[in-house]
Amino acid sequence: MIRAVIFDLDGTLLDTLDDLAAAVNHALQTCGYPLRSRDEVRSFIGNGVRVLIRRAAPQGIPEAEYERCFASFREYYLSHMNDQTRVFGGILPLLDALRRQNVRTAVVSNKLHPGVVGLCRDYFGDRIDCAVGVITESERKPAPVNVLRAMETFGVTPEETLYVGDSEVDVQTADNASLRCVGVTWGYRTKEELTAAGVWALIDSPQELLSLLDA
């Protein structure tokens, strides 16, 4: 019986792509580099914002330039992360259903911790029991550190927990925490990519997750 569900954030609960793309291009423009398309930014998402900037910026630039781009991205994004971001359809009813069934919920994201906390507060209110982002690089997924912390907070075992995400990084994170990964098909990767990554199950709508709680 599932007692806790741990969610990824970007591409799983929230569609953050347009705000991330705007922040990436603001940073690139500020630093004098070519801009990236929305689809390019989509393909760069998954390993955290530092890696996002490394992928978006020209390869081989000095480390100080990466840091300058990242600082510009961070400042802009933390002020504009709610401009175009939206909750995926069906997510709020899913979270409400999990609450009614006494299933604990957490968000573990590779976004910066202040951004994760702020977005979860703004979009989910008290529907999420625990929201955790990256403070140090050692916490960045696929490292299982923050997932294991959430499980410890809830007092649940791997058998009592599902991990839900939209990318190969989420599959790796779940594997590293000895969890089953449910892949969502409305996010930033295709069904084929998720299947190749080794997801335990695929769902096409949030409501389908409820049928997996007895797994």
Descriptive account of the structure:
With 215 residues, the chain is α/β, with parallel strands linked by helices. The protein has 2 domains: 139 residues, HAD superfamily/HAD-like (Rossmann fold, 3-Layer(aba) Sandwich); 64 residues, Putative phosphatase, domain 2 (DNA polymerase, domain 1). The protein is built from 9 helices and 8 strands. The strands form 2 sheets. Strands 5-4-1-6-7-8 form a 6-stranded parallel β-sheet, with helices on both faces.
A few lines on this structure:
It contains nine helices and eight strands.
What is the C-level CATH assignment of the largest domain? Alpha Beta
Strand content: 15-25%
Biggest sheet, in brief? 6 strands, parallel
Which sequence of SSEs, written as H and E, runs from N to C? EEHHHHEHEHEHEHEHE
- What is the CA-atom radius of gyration, in angstroms? 17 Å
Helical coverage, percent range: 40-55%
Strand-helix topology:
Layout lengths: L3 E4 L6 E2 L1 H14 L7 H7 L4 H8 L6 H18 L5 E2 L3 H10 L3 E9 H12 L5 E5 L10 H10 L6 E5 L2 H9 L3 E5 L6 H7 L3 E3 L12
Parallel strand pairs: 1-4, 1-6, 4-5, 6-7, 7-8
Antiparallel strand pairs: 2-3
Primary descriptors:
alpha/beta; Rossmann fold; 2 domains; six-stranded parallel β-sheet; two-stranded antiparallel ribbon; 16% strand
